[in-house]
Specification:
Largest sheet: 8 strands, antiparallel, barrel
Helix content: under 10%
Shape: elongated
Number of strands: 16
Order of helices and strands: EEEEEEEEHEEEEEEEE
Radius of gyration: 20 Å
Strand order of the largest sheet: 1-2-3-4-5-6-7-8
Number of helices: 1
Strand content: over 45%
């Protein structure tokens, strides 16, 4: 499976193989990572180099200590990246923001009603797709102008779900 890892301000495309390999930005390494005891310390063997890594899960991702340096790491799979990207890309020529379905699925919940004021990034729709529930967020702040879906409704990829007029 492919992931996008943001380490501090840099992004890396990571492909985890099924054969103890990992490919980072096109370069493949042999990988062996094992937990040391019950703590969040790992022994990492990456090709011919050995490291001791401390990993702590935080709200935004992971706090990683490696070779005396601290790094904040955020990891997304391609599916999650696509969901976050589509929500922020849609804007009509009139300046209204449009929330569209990033993939086909079933609307589980609609968390706003027409006329509601919403903040950018506020959760508006829960969409179930591929056996996972995904929260679709407001691409911008504004007022809910139109809601085109209801809970229990099936939607297609790219289908318009809501229109948000700018503040």
């Amino acid at each position: 499976m492919k992931y996008i890892a943001r380490v501090d301000e840099r992004e890396f495309l990571v492909d985890v193989g099924n054969d103890s390999t990992i490919t980072i930005n096109g370069t493949t390494f042999r990988l062996d990572m094992r937990s040391i005891g019950d703590q969040q310390i790992y022994s990492l063997l990456l090709s011919d180099h050995s490291y001791e890594v401390y990993v702590n899960r935080i709200d935004t991702g992971y706090d990683v200590h490696l070779a005396g340096e601290r790094h904040e790491v955020v990891v997304e799979d391609e599916y999650t990246r696509r969901i976050h990207g589509i929500g922020s890309q849609t804007r009509s020529p009139k300046g209204d923001a449009q929330l569209k379905a990033p993939m086909p699925g079933m609307v589980v919940a609609v968390k706003a009603k027409e006329g509601d004021l919403v903040k950018s990034g506020q959760g508006l729709v829960i969409l179930e797709a591929m056996k996972m529930e995904n929260e679709l967020r407001a691409p911008s702040a504004g007022t809910i102008k139109q809601i085109k879906i209801a809970a229990g409704q099936k939607v297609d990829q790219g289908q318009l779900l809501m229109v948000i007029s700018a503040e």
